[in-house]
C-alpha cells in the first residue's frame, strides 16, 4: 500500500516538501490543504505588487515559465491533490488522522496519514489596541490583503497611511505606498529605532535618513494606543504622543508562529509558541515534520534557539522535509539569519549578530565601520558602501556583518560571502584574506570586505583608536560646553577649509600632508578627534601622530561620508 502524506499549509514549505517527496516516491499519495483560495506564492513579493513594480498578482503565484501554481497545476504537473479553502481543525496523533473543514460548505472530513507535514506559517501580531476591526486596517501577509491594499490606494480613497511597525515588512510597505502612489506615509515603531535587532544604531540612522528625505514620517519610541474610525472605517491613529490621520493602517508589528493546532495535539513548542524540531525537521512526534515560520531552529552564532521567518529558509527546509519523508537522512543544522531589504535610494543587508545583540548575548565584542568604494576608485560607475563587522575581542571571531548601499547587488555579494562562513566561526584573518573576484567594474583590488577585516585587526592590535559617527556627532554638538576635545579635519584644504571658516577655532583644518610640519598646533592636553572623508586619511594621520609622540587621538569611523548618510547636521 502506498504511503499517504498530508501537508497542512501550501505557501512555501508545504509545496516544496510535497514536490520533493513526490519526485523521490512518485507512487505515493500527497494531499495538501490550505485555508486560502490561492496557494504557493511568493509572499515576500507583496510590497512590490503594492508598489506596481510587479503589475499582476498572478506573477507571485507563477512558475518561472508563467504557469500559475493553482490546485490544477499541482494535480497535473506534480500529482499532488490540493484542497483550498480548507481548514485543519484538529490532529489525532494516535489515530494518525487530521479533521478538516471545507470553509465554503462547512462540511468536515477526516484524512488519514502515514506522515504529516505542518507548514503552518506565521500570523501577524495584533497589538491589544481598540479599533483593529475597523475597515481599512489590515496586515500584508497574503495575496488577499495585498489586493485590498493596492485596490484601496488605486481607487484614490487613501490620502494618508500609517504603518505600525518598523521592521522589514513595514519599511517595504512604506516605500511601496510613498514611492509609487505618493500618499502620506507615517511609520510608528515602538522601540527607539527602526529594524530593531538587525542593524547598529549608525546604520539604522542611515535607513531612517533615506526614508525621511523621501517624504516618509518616522516616529520611533512611540506606542499606538487606539485606532479611531468614522462610519466603520479607520480615520485616525492615536499614539501616546499624537493623533495621525489615516484612511489605511497596515499592521506590521512582527509575526508569531501559527501553531495552535499543533500545541492542541500535544507537540512540543518553545515559549514563543514555535514548534521544536530536530535537524531532520521532525517534531516531538517522529511521524510529523515541520519547518518555516512556525518552528524554532538553532542560531548558529549563539547556539541558542532562533526564530527565522523567511521564505528562503522555508523553501530550503521544505526540501529537507521532502527528502526525509522518502526515507532520506537530510539535515538542516540551523541558520545565521541573513536578510536584505530594499528601500528608496539604498538597500540594507546583514547576517549574524549586530553589536547590540552580540553584547546582549554575552560576547565581548567590537563594531567596525568602513566606508569605501564598492568598485575600483578610478572606475566611473561606483558608490561608497557602508559595511560593519561585529568581532569578538578575545577570539577575533566574526559574529556578524551588516551594510548599507545604493547598489543592493554589490552589497548582497559582500554579505553573502561572509554569511556562508559564519557557522564555521571565521576570524578577522579569514575576512582580511577572503578571495574576492576582482576587476575594476566589480571590486577594488583590496575589496571593502578585506578592508573591514584589516580595520578590525588594527583596532584589536591597538593601532587605531576609534569612535563611531554618532559619538562624533554628540561630541561636536557639545563643543560649546566641552573644552576637552579638539577637532582636526585631515582632508585636503579644498574639503576642510569651508568648515574651518564656518567654525573658526572649533573646526581645525590640518591636512595629513601638513601634520609633521604643524605638529605644534596639535594639543596634547585634550582628546584630538581626527576626521576625514571615509576614515583612511584620519587613520594614517593617527599613525603619524603616534610616531611623533601624540597618542591622545581618536579616529572617526566612516568619516564625513557616514555623517552625511545618517543625516547629521555638520
From TrEMBL:
Ranges for domain Rhodanese: 510-568
The entry's keywords: FAD, Flavoprotein, Oxidoreductase, Redox-active center
Superkingdom of origin: Bacteria
Cofactor or coenzyme needed: FAD
SMART domains documented for this protein: RHOD (SM00450)
Pfam families: Pyr_redox_2 (PF07992), Pyr_redox_dim (PF02852), Rhodanese (PF00581)
Signal peptide: none
Gene3D superfamilies linked to this entry: FAD/NAD(P)-binding domain, Rhodanese-like domain
SUPFAM superfamilies to which the protein is assigned, alphabetical: FAD/NAD(P)-binding domain (SSF51905), FAD/NAD-linked reductases, dimerisation (C-terminal) domain (SSF55424), Rhodanese/Cell cycle control phosphatase (SSF52821)
PANTHER family associated with the record: NAD(P)H SULFUR OXIDOREDUCTASE (COA-DEPENDENT), PYRIDINE NUCLEOTIDE-DISULFIDE OXIDOREDUCTASE DOMAIN-CONTAINING
Family from the record: Belongs to the class-III pyridine nucleotide-disulfide oxidoreductase family.
The protein, known as: FAD-dependent oxidoreductase
Source species of the chain: Nitratidesulfovibrio liaohensis
Source species taxonomy: Bacteria, Pseudomonadati, Thermodesulfobacteriota, Desulfovibrionia, Desulfovibrionales
Amino acid at each position: 500500500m502506498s504511503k499517504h502524506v498530508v501537508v497542512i499549509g501550501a505557501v512555501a514549505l508545504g509545496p516544496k516538501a510535497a514536490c520533493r517527496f513526490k519526485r523521490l516516491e512518485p507512487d505515493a499519495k500527497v494531499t495538501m490543504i490550505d485555508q486560502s483560495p490561492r496557494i504557493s506564492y511568493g509572499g515576500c513579493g507583496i510590497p512590490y505588487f503594492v508598489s506596481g513594480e510587479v503589475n499582476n498578482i498572478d506573477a507571485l503565484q507563477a512558475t518561472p515559465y508563467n504557469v500559475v501554481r493553482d490546485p490544477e497545476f499541482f494535480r497535473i504537473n506534480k500529482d499532488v491533490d490540493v484542497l483550498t479553502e480548507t481548514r485543519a481543525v484538529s490532529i489525532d496523533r494516535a489515530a494518525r488522522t487530521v479533521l478538516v473543514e471545507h470553509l465554503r460548505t462547512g462540511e468536515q472530513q477526516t484524512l488519514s496519514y502515514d506522515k504529516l507535514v505542518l507548514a503552518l506559517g506565521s500570523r501577524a501580531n495584533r497589538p491589544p489596541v481598540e479599533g483593529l476591526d475597523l475597515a481599512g486596517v489590515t496586515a500584508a501577509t497574503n495575496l488577499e490583503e495585498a489586493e485590498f491594499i493596492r485596490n484601496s490606494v488605486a481607487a484614490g480613497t487613501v490620502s494618508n497611511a500609517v504603518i505600525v511597525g518598523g521592521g522589514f515588512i513595514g519599511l517595504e510597505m512604506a516605500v511601496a505606498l510613498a514611492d509609487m502612489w505618493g500618499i502620506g506615509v507615517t511609520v510608528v515603531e515602538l522601540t527607539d529605532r527602526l529594524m530593531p535587532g538587525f542593524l547598529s544604531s549608525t546604520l539604522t540612522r542611515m535607513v531612517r535618513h533615506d526614508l525621511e528625505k523621501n517624504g516618509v514620517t518616522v516616529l520611533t519610541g512611540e506606542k499606538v494606543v487606539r485606532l479611531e474610525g468614522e462610519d466603520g472605517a479607520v480615520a485616525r491613529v492615536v499614539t501616546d504622543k499624537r493623533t495621525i490621520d489615516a484612511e489605511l493602517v497596515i499592521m506590521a508589528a512582527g509575526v508569531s508562529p501559527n501553531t495552535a493546532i499543533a500545541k492542541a495535539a500535544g507537540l512540543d513548542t518553545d515559549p514563543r509558541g514555535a514548534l521544536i524540531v530536530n535537524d531532520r525537521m521532525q517534531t516531538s512526534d517522529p511521524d510529523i515534520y515541520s519547518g518555516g515560520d512556525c518552528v524554532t531552529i538553532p542560531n548558529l552564532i549563539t547556539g541558542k534557539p532562533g526564530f527565522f521567518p523567511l521564505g528562503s529558509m522555508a523553501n530550503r527546509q521544505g526540501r529537507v522535509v521532502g527528502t526525509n519523508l522518502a526515507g532520506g537522512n537530510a539535515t538542516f543544522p540551523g541558520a545565521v539569519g541573513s536578510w536584505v531589504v530594499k528601500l528608496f535610494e539604498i538597500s540594507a543587508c546583514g547576517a549574524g549578530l549586530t553589536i547590540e545583540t552580540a553584547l546582549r548575548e554575552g560576547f565581548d565584542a567590537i563594531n567596525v565601520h568602513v566606508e569605501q568604494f564598492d568598485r575600483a576608485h578610478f572606475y566611473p560607475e561606483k558608490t561608497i558602501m557602508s559595511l560593519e563587522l561585529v568581532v569578538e575581542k578575545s577570539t577575533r571571531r566574526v559574529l556578524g556583518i551588516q551594510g548599507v548601499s545604493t547598489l543592493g547587488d554589490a552589497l548582497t555579494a559582500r554579505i553573502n560571502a561572509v554569511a556562508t562562513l559564519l557557522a564555521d566561526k571565521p576570524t578577522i584573518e579569514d575576512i582580511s584574506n577572503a578571495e574576492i573576484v576582482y576587476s575594476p567594474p566589480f571590486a577594488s583590488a583590496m575589496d571593502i570586505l578585506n578592508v573591514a577585516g584589516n580595520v578590525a585587526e588594527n583596532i584589536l592590535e591597538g593601532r587605531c583608536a576609534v569612535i563611531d559617527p554618532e559619538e562624533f556627532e554628540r561630541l561636536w554638538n557639545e563643543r560649546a560646553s566641552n573644552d576637552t576635545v579638539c577637532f582636526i579635519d585631515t582632508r585636503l584644504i579644498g574639503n576642510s577649509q569651508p568648515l574651518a571658516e564656518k567654525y573658526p577655532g572649533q573646526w581645525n583644518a590640518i591636512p595629513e600632508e601638513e601634520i609633521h610640519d604643524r605638529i605644534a598646533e596639535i594639543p596634547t592636553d585634550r582628546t584630538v578627534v581626527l576626521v576625514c572623508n571615509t576614515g583612511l586619511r584620519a587613520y594614517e594621520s593617527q599613525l603619524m601622530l603616534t610616531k611623533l609622540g601624540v597618542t591622545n587621538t581618536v579616529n572617526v569611523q566612516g568619516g564625513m561620508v557616514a555623517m552625511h548618510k545618517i543625516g547629521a547636521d555638520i
